[in-house]
Specification:
about 300 residues, alpha/beta, TIM Barrel, 9-stranded mixed β-sheet, 11 helices, elongated
Length: about 300
């Protein structure tokens, strides 16, 4: 069963990075709660996404310039800004797992000391920090990627991470990540349709601002992609097609025999293989399932 993770403590339902948000997470029957942490001037980990407190509290100033007592004198929603310690206590009482995002470098030792190993995932856009976490602890980690780099799985493996938290995905990312034993948690997902789509692609869990909205989608059986129900992709329905590779793991192969670049009305250029029949041939699909690193040349040889 895929995990439901409330993003920034269910920020669509309560103030972000707040104790109220953690309670809202539980009321929506989510599995984990995500929160951002930064370091106060006197060395305390507090829940805060931005460099400053200006956007989310009734105060002003950079987090790094304020002592913890000064930060906790400010209010997020109707309550004081929580420390990580307070958030972890409440999460444990509610039996929620935690996803802790390090919003700055240098927090590794403090986070490793504060966060329990069980039901915890440490994430960051600073991949070197996650690599350091692995050197000093047994905590589960996940790299955050906000774009779609050429080799995201290699980035995760370099960081010695256990998971990838991508903002953008394609079907190949799920396939390659799972082959290397990595989990994939896309986000932020705020519609049931998008949630269902990502679950069909193989998401291990979803981050959402509104876990109550997404809970129902996660509780539904994942609909397998077949020739009669491919509602998200212009299925070709070729003779003998079983949709084993409706989302081709070779995309974009850029093999001019199999596809071509097209220009949209808005002027965007992208690779289209809508006319390609290769990976839908039963013998080719079977071979590709058994040999996922196959090249287009290998597969084309099978059709002859």
């Amino acid at each position: 069963m895929a995990l439901l993770i409330s993003h920034r403590t269910a920020s669509a339902l309560a103030a972000e990075n707040s104790l109220e948000g953690i309670n809202a997470t539980k009321s929506c029957q989510a599995d984990y709660v995500h929160m951002d942490v930064r370091l106060s001037r006197d060395g305390e980990l507090v829940l805060m996404h931005d460099e400053s407190v200006d956007r989310t509290t009734d105060g002003k100033g950079k987090v790094e310039d304020l002592d913890c007592t000064e930060i906790q004198a400010l209010h997020v929603g109707n309550r004081p800004v929580p420390t990580l310690a307070e958030a972890l206590i409440l999460s444990r009482e509610l039996e929620l797992g935690v996803v802790i995002e390090m919003r700055e470098e240098g927090l590794e030792a403090l986070v490793a000391e504060a966060v329990p190993k069980e039901k915890s995932i440490i994430t960051s856009s600073f991949h070197a920090s996650l690599r350091e976490i692995k050197h000093i602890s047994d905590l589960k980690t996940g790299i955050i990627i906000t774009s779609l780099p050429i080799k995201p799985v290699e980035l995760a493996l370099w960081a010695q991470a256990d998971a990838i938290f991508p903002k953008r995905v394609n079907p190949r990312l799920f396939k390659e990540a799972h082959q290397m034993g990595l989990e994939v948690y896309p986000g932020v997902v705020n519609t049931a349709a998008q949630a269902s789509w990502l679950l069909r692609l193989g998401a291990d869990g979803l981050l959402t601002d509104n876990p109550c909205l997404i809970r129902e989608a996660l509780d539904q059986p994942v609909m397998a992609t077949g020739r009669s129900n491919c509602e998200y992709y212009p299925c070709h329905h070729f003779e003998g097609q079983d949709c084993t590779h409706c989302f081709c793991p070779l995309y974009p192969c850029k093999d001019e025999e199999l596809g071509r670049f097209v220009i949209t009305k808005r002027g965007k250029r992208f690779w289209s293989c809508i006319d390609c029949k290769l990976v839908h041939l039963p013998n080719v699909a079977k071979y590709l399932s058994e040999h996922p690193e196959s090249t287009t040349e290998e597969l084309k040889a099978l059709r002859e």
